[in-house]
Amino acid sequence: MTYVVKFARKEPGRKLREVSSALCCSLLFKVWINPRQLRLGGIAYEAKRLITLKQHGIAVPEVLLLTPEYLVMTHTGESVQSRLSHSPKNAELLQSVVDSLVELHTRHQWHGGAQIRNLTVKDNTIYRIDFEENTGNAMPLHLAQAYDVLLCFNSLLHYLKDDIKMGSDLLACYLRKAPNAQVLQALQQVNRHLQRLQRILLPLMTRKLRQGKDVRRTVFFAQILQQALSL
Fold first, then answer.
1. CA–CA separation, 12 vs 15, rounded Å?
2. d(CA 28, CA 193)
């Protein structure tokens, strides 16, 4: 059996990351969260989450051994990020990523680190890894799930290759397969916020600033979100 070992570690810049996440949630969802509530858990916390998700039928690594120093898990295949790097706009794989998120959320669960870098694929099944984030315990479930959606789709932008229709169709598919009025309301709020920022800030930016990577990604995501919500 192939397995993965994850060692206990302290991440540099953790406090800054917690504060940034709290500010992000405040801006997007109008809910203030104490940064301490977003503190990353250690390997024992991650093992507990893996076991819980496994019990709910979510495709995650199986915990083989937990010690104070390290966590041993089953290997769950190739990185989705790596596969998409070699095959961008892979419609089948992108759809599988969305379906995996649907499955997670319709089973009333959350990830906290739903970016594609935390997904693997093995035998045509998408697995989820890296469960140190505490967002689902720090905020209501629907906001944790909306946050998952934002992280997932923002991480997919590079692989959509400026295809707004593909991105909006994938997001609309998620909304259709995982209907949740509270998640929808949260995403609508984010959409209003992004549209307002575009109206106010874009005209004030120089052409060079508008062509910056972060600005283009934000505008691209805003277009996908607005179009998906209008379908």
1. 8
2. 7
pLDDT tens digits for 148-199?
999 999 999 999 999 999 999 999 999 999 999 999 999 999 999 999 989 9
- Residue 207's alpha-carbon distances to 19, 20, 135, 157, 215, in angstroms, are 31, 28, 37, 21, 11
153-171 burial by CB neighbour count: b if 16+ within 10 A, else e?
A: bbbbbbbbeeeeebbbbbb
The CA distance from 163 to 29, in Å, is 27
Q: Whole-angstrom Cα distance, residue 30 to residue 57? A: 32
- The amino acid that residue 20 corresponds to is S
Q: Using CA atoms, how far apart are residues 120 and 83, in angstroms rounded to an integer?
A: 9
> Domain residues of the chain, as ranges?
3-230
| Predicted model pTM | 0.94
Q: Which CATH superfamily is domain 3-230 in?
A: Transferase(Phosphotransferase) domain 1 (1.10.510.10)
What's the CA gap between 119 and 113, in Å, rounded?
9
